[in-house]
Design a protein that fits this description.
The chain is α/β, with parallel strands linked by helices and 196 residues long. The chain has helices spanning 2-19, 23-28, 47-50, 53-67, 82-93, 148-158, and strands spanning 31-34, 42-45, 74-78, 96-102, 110-117, 120-127, 136-144, 164-173, 187-194. The protein has a single domain (2-194), classed as 3-Layer(aba) Sandwich (Rossmann fold).
Length: 196
Amino acid sequence: MEQFINSNKQVMNNYLFSTNMNIEKLSKSVRNVPDFPIPGIQFKDVTTLFKNPEILKELSDGLYEMYKDKGVTKVVGIESRGFIMGPLLAERLHVGFVPIRKKGKLPAETYEMSYDKEYGKDTIQIHRDALDENDVVVLHDDLLATGGTMIAAVELIKKFCPKKIYVNFLIELEDLKGRAAFDPEIEVESILKYDI
């Protein structure tokens, strides 16, 4: 697994180099909020990335370059910060956007999955008619910590038996080793990496 992780890092480093993303500038634009939402958590606030139009465009361009040749048919975003870059990526790729929401927010029939998160328990849902077996999916959220939310989201997507699932984060907290929780066939990418 460690070799897979290191290999994936090298692929990402080559990607970032080839798209000329200014990682230092992007990293400095993320606000760190200590002890939020509970003591001991170092919260990475991505709203400071989104308020700057140049950085927002750089993120949008970078995500597009990452997935433009992958045959993607749907982008799925996780509530709520996955609803920011997810639709932007979908629009750039000329594909549909599908939300994964917290329990009780979707009006039609759903699949659901419960999971443990960094500071509690939660349940997410997706509409049963959101995807099908012909889809190639990019699953997007803002942050990879322990991986609980995204692993639950991947399990929801697997219910549709899509052709391929790609997983994408803006930020990865490497010390928490969330990447190791994913099956090796799931291609996991993150743009910014922090220790914690």
